[in-house]
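new request in #modeling-help
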Amino acid sequence: MFKKISTVLTLLFIIAGSLNVTLAQEAEKTSVDMADSLRADGKIYVVVLVVMIVFTFFSMYLLLTDRHVKKWEKEMKEMKESKK
Amino acid sequence: MIRLIEQSWWKYVGIIMVYYTIIAGFLIKAPRLDILNETIRNLFFHVAIWFAMFILLIISVVYSIKYLLNSKTIHDTIASEFARIGIVLGLIGISTGSVWARFTWGDWWVNDPKLNATTIALLIYLAYLVLRASIESDEQKARISAVYNIFAFTAMIPLVFILPRMTDSLHPGNGGNPGFNAYDLDNNLRKVFYPAVLGWSILGFWLASLRVRIRNIKEELIHHID
């Protein structure tokens, strides 16, 4: 399951990265300040990775809790069956 | 819905959607606008999370109505837990909006109709939680809070969506300001915005469903001890 998620994620990363590369080649209006230097340095990827790491921990915790609750639901079901 | 809650596939869809929002949200080409600059990317967080809240609160009020029709405990459980997570998302929405306001309007909070009205709507929902906590009897708690939930929802609609549009407001989409669709001329932002709404909604739904399942286990345990 985690292998599947990681392959989908790398695909998404590549797609999103290429979205940026192809579109950034257009003539840029320099009159409005944007984070162009961050993108040029590649520092934008620090932002992306940091937020991704935070969310990874959060989603892993959610999945673990989900599994935990599922275990207790199963126990309750078995308890109900045995009492019948 | 209970069958859906027991399945897992949609949870992975939600995780992937939020990952996509994070990755593409920062990397996608955004319109170069004065005042907003890069903060337009907050669209994928602040706005998407408000949409997610609205979806959860709709589910909550539907189940409140169902409870009043059927008096099934599970419906009350779903209604209350979805309202609770809806409130959490609303608080996230307000705080992300506040951060956005600081950097675009110059202050963490402004005396604006949209902000004031949405805060009132959230306070009305918070009172729902207080109401539930104040009633001892389970059946009374469920019935009275179901009626209050319907009131809270019908109050939220004009407060959040209608009232701010009728007067002067700083907030986009209200008081004569163009909504964000006016900025997203090449529809590029929508490629991330729609998945973001889906992702945050699924995440909120998941959190609420977990609480529902835990409450169910508690109910079963109490039932068995009796």
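bot summary: Chain B has a mean pLDDT of 92.
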